[in-house]
Amino acid sequence: MLLAGDVGGTKTNLGIFSPSDGWRRPIAEATFKSDSFSTLDAMLREFLDQQKLSATYASLGVAGPVDGGRANITNLKWVLDEEKLSRALNLKSVKLINDLEAVAYCIPSLEKTELKTLNKGSPILEGSKAVIAPGTGLGEAFLTWDDDSYRVHASEGGHSDFSPTSPIEIELLRFLQARFGQASLERACSGQGLRNIHEFLEERGAQEDKAWHEIEQCATDPVPVIVDAAIHDKGKCKICEETLRIFISILGHEASNFALKVKATNGVYLGGGIPPRIIPALTDGLFMKSYNDKGKMSELVKQFPVYVIMNPKVALAGAARYGFEHLPIGE
């Protein structure tokens, strides 16, 4: 049996997979709030106890860079080590990969029903693919064709510098620099980015209505409140609408930035928890206008297909696929 996981800064999806059912069909799965546990092995142990199942191997996609079998979770205080996790859980072997790497492993197998097309483009078979995923943080990865299949490459591009493209984004950059020192892209284009943009607009002098403040006081996580108010309560919360508009503009520019860097002629894929929740805002024209704004390279990026990944468990499936391909399961 394989224990697979998508370990994020906010939540963690876990599943148990068998060789007979394969990596697309977990025989058991559950979701946990990540910061409810002091360690990852405590969470994994609770999951296995709940399911009354055992595993021999584990494959985990984690939200942070992985080096030499060790990883620091970017938005948690967890330090992970493959060997220590193996001993703690009595497993033969544990593999850690970056969470966007896990998403990328699943990309070549996605069905049309798991994707929302934002730009049809003119895909080139065996061309590179780019993955950009705003969730709690911002992840990026890419795939290149290698003889007869795609090879996945991890990236920490979400932590590169935020590059503004409008006067208000220049103001946002200064706000982020004053608050954090280094203004990374993640601080403007993620869940935490939405919070930062909203706070920037408040500090800039934008006025909220009474209803917004009442909702904000009750919300443990203001991001869903901001998104829902911007999309479903049009006209009631101008600052939420402006927050989402700035976020989408930044996301569109970064999607084509990354697409140009890896020449993603076979597709740009938007993953993470935020894009599926904001489809109405992604399809109203602003995202593609920002995406296409590449000067002399505009005609090139228009040829790249752009999709939103609608499957919320894509990283879990990708981690499981990696496990079945890199661990001696069933041998």
List the helices and strands and how they pair.
Blueprint lengths: L1 E6 L3 E7 L10 E6 L6 H12 L5 E6 L3 E2 L2 E3 L6 E3 H8 L3 E6 H8 L8 E5 L9 E6 L3 E9 L2 E7 L11 H14 L10 H14 L5 H9 L3 H11 L5 H25 L5 E3 L8 H4 L3 H7 L5 H5 L3 E4 L4 H13 L5
Task: Walk me through the structure.
α3 (99-106) crosses α12 (314-326) and α7 (222-232) packs across α8 (238-262). The protein is 39% helix and 22% strand. The model has no long low-confidence stretch (mean pLDDT 93). With 331 residues, the chain is α/β, with parallel strands linked by helices. The protein has helices spanning 40-51, 82-89, 99-106, 167-180, 191-204, 210-218, 222-232, 238-262, 279-282, 286-292, 298-302, 314-326, and strands spanning 2-7, 11-17, 28-33, 57-62, 66-67, 70-72, 79-81, 93-98, 115-119, 129-134, 138-146, 149-155, 268-270, 306-309. It is globular, with a radius of gyration of 20 Å. A six-stranded mixed beta sheet has the order 9-14-13-10-11-12, sandwiched between helices. A five-stranded mixed beta sheet has the order 3-2-1-4-8, with helices on both faces. It has two domains: 2-104 and 313-326, Nucleotidyltransferase, domain 5 (2-Layer Sandwich); 112-310, Hexokinase, domain 1. The protein contains twelve helices and 14 strands.
